[in-house]
Amino acid sequence: MSKAVLILGAGVGGLTTADTLRQLLPPEIRIVLVDKGFDGTLGLSLLWVLRGWRQPDEVRVRATAASLPGVELVTATVGHIDIPAQAVHTDAGVIGYDALVIALGATLDTAAVPGLSEALDAGVAGQFYTLDGATGLRAKVDELDRGRIAVLIAGVPFKCPAAPYEAAFLLAAQLGDRFDSETVRIDTFTPDPLPMPVAGPEVGEALVALLKDRGIGFHPRKTIARVDAAETTLHFGDGTAEPFDLLAVVPPHAPSAAARSAGLGEAGWIPVNPQTLSTGVDNVWAIGDATVLTLPNGKPLPKAAVFAEAQAEVVAHRVARQLGYDAPERFFTGWGACYVETGDHQAAKGEGNFLHAPAPSVTLYPPSRAFHDEKVAQERAWLDRWNR
Q1: Mean pLDDT within 264-269
Q2: pLDDT for the residue numbered 2
Q3: In Å, how far from its chain's centre is CA 4?
Q4: 266 band by pLDDT with thresholds 50, 70 and 90
Q5: Which InterPro entries does the protein's record reference (predicted)?
Q6: Do 259 and 102 meet the contact criterion of CB atoms below 8 Å apart?
Q7: 247 and 117: one domain?
Q8: Are residues 93 and 201 both part of a single domain?
Q9: What is the CA angle 376-378-380, rounded to 5?
Q10: 3-state SS string over the chain?
């Protein structure tokens, strides 16, 4: 019987793993990619949907047999990962494997903050981590004549540490004269002492300076306790409260139920070796947002697609070697970059080595049109790669 590599999740990490493995392995090795649907969204582009620079159909990722030749695409919901049996139970049946790659991402858990779901349902809050969320929040901002927008990080970790601050800049640009005249104000609230704390204090302080230069408020060490939708008020763990007219929230993130079912990590996030992405279980690897990868300073690697893509290349080569095929040995280096859009077709760029010891070595470069264009090129490359 032929061997099978099973990949769970068709985000950037899962797609890259499947594509790379198909290039490394002979046709007789089955490569099976499972996802609940192969009509996804490029997360990198969601903030541009919020700004109105992209339409929803322009940022969809539709993986097909044409974009992943030789890969079996199985549309199914994963129910349980049975590690001892080397099998995954789905609503389309049980799939056995010889090697497993878990790339199930993270889910949004709005129920984790009292009152947050009610605020979203009432229309006084919106989020920008889904396509519907980004388009809906844009419409709410268009309708806001005056008042205060609160950009709230409701829990850590979350996908793309720069995203809430990008959102603040882009919302200011969308508001235009309403923001410039201070008819509508924007304030950011985070439980962290600085933005993007894993990148170091210099990066965080530089980003705070950019926010203040634009007239956007920054409020650190604000851990949300509850949201009062009726009174449109944020209540924090330190006993303080802040009013808002519109809440733009980064909802708490949680590991998927399927990832938790594997039993590989106490909190559901899957611990991995920083260089190899191995889980400590033979023939099982995990990549991307589903993981917790601990850096030399003890903090977790940020959840970002650029890291998932790099990890996928490493894991694909390691799977091929594990199955006995000649493939170069790869290690995850921790090098990565992210962009911080400032709303005027310019972007700052944070870049460096996150696995550097004793702490990440990251530089935030000032905003420029060139960095914005780099992000556009990255978006185009990913969309062209999968939409074939």
Answers
A1: 92
A2: 84
A3: 28
A4: confident
A5: FAD/NAD-bd_sf, FAD/NAD-binding_dom, SQRD
A6: yes
A7: yes
A8: no
A9: 70
A10: CCCEEEEECCCHHHHHHHHHHHHHCCCCCEEEEEECCCEEECHHHHHHHHHCCCCHHHHEEECCCCCCCCCEEEECCEEEEECCCCEEEECCEEEECCEEEECCCEEECHHHCCCHHHHHHHCCEEECCCHHHHHHHHHHHHHCCCEEEEEEECCCCCECCCHHHHHHHHHHHHHCHHHHCCCEEEEEECCCCCCCHHHCHHHHHHHHHHHHHHCCEEECCCCEEEEECCCCEEEECCCCEEECCEEEEECCEEECHHHHHCCCCCCCCEECCCCCCECCCCCEEECHHHEECECCCCCECCECHHHHHHHHHHHHHHHHHHCCCCCCCCCCCCEEEEEEECCCCCEEEEEEECCCCCCCEEEEEEEEHHHHHHHHHHHHHHHHHHCC
The boundaries of the domain holding residue 16 are 4-105+256-323
Residue 72 has phi, psi (to 5 degrees) of -80, 120
Q: Report the b/e string of 80-101 with b at 16+ CB within 10 A.
A: bbebeebebbbeeeebebbbbb
Contacts of 239 (CB under 8 A, 6+ apart): none
**Is the same domain home to 127 and 245?**
yes
Looking at residue 79, what is its pLDDT?
Answer: 96
Tell me: cis bond preceding 252? Omega within 30 of 0 counts: no
pLDDT tens per residue across span 86-109: 999 999 999 999 999 999 999 999
Smallest CA-to-CA distance from 42 within 130, 153, 108 is with 130
Would 338 be classed as within a structural domain? no
pLDDT band at 1 (very low <50, low <70, confident <90, very high): low
pTM, 2 dp: 0.96
**Mind listing the pLDDT tens digit for each residue in 338-387?**
999 999 999 999 999 999 999 999 999 999 999 999 999 999 999 999 89
